[in-house]
Every structure is written in structure tokens, then in C-alpha cells.
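To whoever picks this up:

The nightly regression suite flagged PHB de-polymerase domain-containing protein as changed. Nothing in the input moved, so I suspect the structure step. Input below, exactly as stored in the fixture:
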Amino acid sequence: MNTPAPAKVQPGLNVPFFWPVQLASSMAEQGMALLARNVKFADEELRLHDGSIKPRLATTHSVRLKLRTLDLCDYSVPGAKGIPTLVNAPYAGHTSMIADYHEGQSLMQTLKNNDVGPLFLTDWHSATPDMKDLEVDQYLGDFLACIDDLGGHVNLVGLCQGGWMAAMLAARFPDKIASLVLAGSPIDTHAGNGPLVKMVKESPMSFYADLVASGGGLMLGKYMLAGWKNMHPEQHYVQDQIDLYEHIDDPVWLSKTEAFDRWYENPLDLPGRWYLQVIDQLFKRNLLAKGKYVALGRTLKLKDITCPLYLLAGERDDITGHEQVFAAEDLCGTPKDKIQKRMVPGGHVGLFMGGRTLKETWPEIAAWIVKQTG
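Regenerated output under the current build:
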């Protein structure tokens, strides 16, 4: 009868200082090659999540305006003519890198390469403590200043939360907007039954107020990031690490992963007063869709929007369901023959930075913009 070899007894290292020692010992038993791979994995994992990889816009541009809340970035080709197109990135906790993500995978590059003329992007700033009491009106005011600086008549492209802001200005100043694109934008925030709709409805305002208070008057980006990750915990806390380990020797995969984490893992802080106003008036009470939202001194009526309208939604978008986007078709005053709708495969983020959507859908949108205003 064979006697099984006794299992090696591992010391009980209860002091955290010594945990890496035990880990190294275990890995060394599996061979130095595996040890090196695991060290490389640990190093890359730390780089991705320790804040050392900072967000940056992928494409060369200049800054036309520097305002308190944003930079207005100019992506225009030299000598570009025609009505300016202004892309309004979402101010929802992540940087405007969502619109200019990676070389060869950038919404701004796609629009630029498909003959959209003068081209600009809002690059929203992370809120500082002195900005904690800013409201939506202050952001609309700076957004309006950008439009006026561009001549007062633009094509607007609203991405995600940047869409409701674009719709507000289009309703408040309809003569300033030549055409409007709403991509993954929550216009009727009570439409559909997505997870975000349920979360907002079920959570009391005191919950959000407490988060703002704990952030010293700001809604801290790290709180929002934790909430987004917890919508898909297996993906963010388990599968991401498995994927990284399996691709640790693939430089192309690592480059794309670093680009994503450069954007995803570096959230912006938001003014607490602005955040509570948006949660209460837009998401809980749905005042914009109901025609009761007051902005810049006037009650907004979406029926005042009569310009050509393009609506883009994702089939599996769990942030902004297609019902919330397509509701604009009936809420806005644009004639039906001036409205274009498109549903594409994929989720929310893929609408703006997914390779397939950038290749197949955004060139179509670029052509639509040129056609409407050519």
C-alpha cells in the first residue's frame, strides 16, 4: 500500500508584511518561469489600478476655450468650412476620453475622417471643492458660451448624459441648433425597466445626500466607480483579473486594456449640488420629459426642438435603455421625416468607443450630419 506523501505544511503567516513571502515561496515551487509571469501580472495589475495611468485624449487637437467647467477642444482640419459640429461628452463621472479613446478607435477621428467640417469636443473638468455648489445652470451657461464662440449655430452630438444637456440647450435655444444627434441619451428617464431605472427609483434621496456629504460636498468619482462595477461584480472583480493573467504576454491586448483603464479607472468628481439636482429633477421626477424642467430662467419644452434628429441606442444597454433614447421621437417637435433612428448591437460604452459601431454606424451619422447641413 502506497503511503501518500504528507502535505507540506504552510506556516500561518498572519502578519500582512509576510504574505508576499509566502506567495513567492508557493510560486517558486511551480518554477521560475511561472514566478516571472506572476510577478509581471502583479506589476501590470498594480499599474492598471493604482492611478498611475492617467486619461488622455488620443488625437492631436488644440484648446479653443478654457472655462471653469470645461475645455473646448478643436479637432478641425485646417481650413474646414461649414456649420461647426460640437460633440458634448457625458459629464457623468468619466472623462471625455470616451469620445477620443484610442488611435484608430475614436469617435472624433471617425467624424473627422468622414468629412464633418469644423469639429469640437467638450472636455469636462473634475470638480474641485470650490465647485461643490455649482448647479446645472452653470454648466449649461458654459456650454452655451462654447456654442456662441463657434458662431451661435452648430450641429450638436450628445453622448450619454451629454445628450440631455444637448437637448436642454436645443429646447432653450432652438435657433442655435442645426441638427441634433442623441446617442445613448436618457431623454425619458422613466421609460423601460433597466437596472439603473430601478436603482434610482428605489433609493431615497437621503442616500445620495449622504454620499455627497461624505465627499465634502462633492460626489466623488470613486463612489460612482464602485457603483458601476457592482452592477457586474463578476466581470470587474474576477473576470478582468483572469483575462489580464491570460493575456499578460500579449502587448496588443495590454495596450488596449491600458487604454480602457486609463479612461475607466480615473473617474471625475462632480459638484454635489449639481449631482443631487440631476438625480432628483431628471431621474427621479423626470421633469425634462414632462415639460416641467426650468433651465436658464425658462421652462423647457422638448416640442420646441424641430431640427433634424438622429437617435442611436444599444440593444443591450443597461445604463440607458433604448426606450429612454427613442422616446425623443414623440417628445420632440421634429417632423417624423426628419428623424432617423438606429439600434445597434452591444451595450452602452460600445455606442461611443466600440470598434464595430465606429466602423459601421458613426460614418453613417457623419454623412447624415453633412447632408442635413450641407
